Amino acid sequence: KMTFIAETLWFLLPFLIANQCPGFARALGLPLSTTPVAASILGENKTIGAYYSAVVGASVTLWVQSIFALPAEFIGANILLLGICMGLGVALGDHVKSFVKRTRGIVPGARWWPFDQLDFLIGGIILSAPLVGVPGLTRFIMAVGLVLLIHPVGNYLGYRLGLRKVPW
Asked: For 133-148, how does the pLDDT look when each residue is reduced to its tens digit (9 = 90+)?
């Protein structure tokens, strides 16, 4: 069982890293990292910089994984194209979720569990599926469980480091 958990964490790593990259881009003052995509419908925190920073984060993580051992699901895929799809999916997943939150009258920054935790993973999986397929049901369930455990910790650390405005 520990092997399956470790393999699932290795599978999740590009998605998790890509999801944190917009905060790092903002903290580093990178171009467009504070420029909202559409503040009136997504909120001020959904930026243009999320798209390139998430792509870079996913791509670099996949490249590093390819040096050691790619997750089984990613073997045979074009790593650069997969990184682009994953990163864009991570950013789009977050932005689509924010749009749905606004249309439901939920204010920016308010908690919306579990969607705030899973949006990036779902978006990343959907956009990378044409290249690598969808993970098996057992892998997907384990990934969701791990994200629900890991994501709040990562967000809290990002908040404490000043990379996020809210701790969730």
From this structure: 999 999 999 999 999 9
